[in-house]
Specification:
Layout (H helix, E strand, L loop, with lengths): L3 E4 L8 H8 L1 E7 L2 E7 L2 E6 L2 E8 L4 H8 L2 E6 L5 H9 L7 H5 L3 E3 L4 E3 L4 E12 L8 H7 L7 E13 L3
Antiparallel strand pairs: 1-10, 2-3, 2-6, 4-5, 5-10, 6-9, 7-8, 9-10
């Protein structure tokens, strides 16, 4: 296994807009033997209630949603570009009917409280502290509502306090 070093959240030097929006991430919840992961490109880093946090958005129709609902922790795993095919696989297939971990070639491992991947360059573990549904009444630009929710399957937002940051030791 490649080794990781622990980081303080203030030591994360990468651009969060690039990490999330361009590079993408894997959201993973569950425990060894029973977990799921999904590719995502929507999220945020910030501070809430004096806690460093990550916010993610997951539709109730996604298999990972069930794991987020049943588990207190989740991880965000970020990768180098050479893993783009693996991220595409984890976004294109459901863990409900496909072994996308095997198909992607990624290597899961147990973090302190959840699951992440040995190939990641940065792993952020979070403890859920808030959740809520995106309410269509509150989407001010109705073009966004029409473009992103034609099936009216609004995301659930999860805010997680960052409990651990791990960076690949050789980067």
């Amino acid at each position: 296994m490649n080794s990781f070093v622990k980081l303080n959240t203030c030591e994360i030097s990468e651009n969060p807009f690039k990490l999330i929006g361009k590079d993408w991430m894997l959201i993973t919840a569950g425990q060894k033997g029973k977990f799921n992961t999904m590719t995502a490109s929507w999220g945020a880093f910030g501070v809430l209630w004096n806690k460093n946090c990550c916010t993610i958005y997951v539709r109730p129709t996604r298999y990972t949603y069930n794991f987020l609902e049943k588990n207190e922790y989740y991880t965000l795993s970020f990768f180098e570009e050479k893993f783009r095919d693996a991220l595409n696989i984890c976004g294109a297939y459901s863990g409900k009917d496909t072994d996308k971990i095997k198909k992607s070639g990624l290597s899961p491992f147990q973090t302190g409280n959840s699951i992440a991947f040995k190939e990641a360059k940065l792993i952020i573990e979070c403890k859920k502290i808030y959740f809520g549904e995106l309410n269509p009444v509150n989407i001010l630009d109705k073009k966004d509502d029409a473009a992103f929710y034609p099936k009216k399957d609004y995301h659930r937002m999860y805010i997680g306090e960052i409990t651990e940051c791990l960076k690949k030791d050789n980067l």
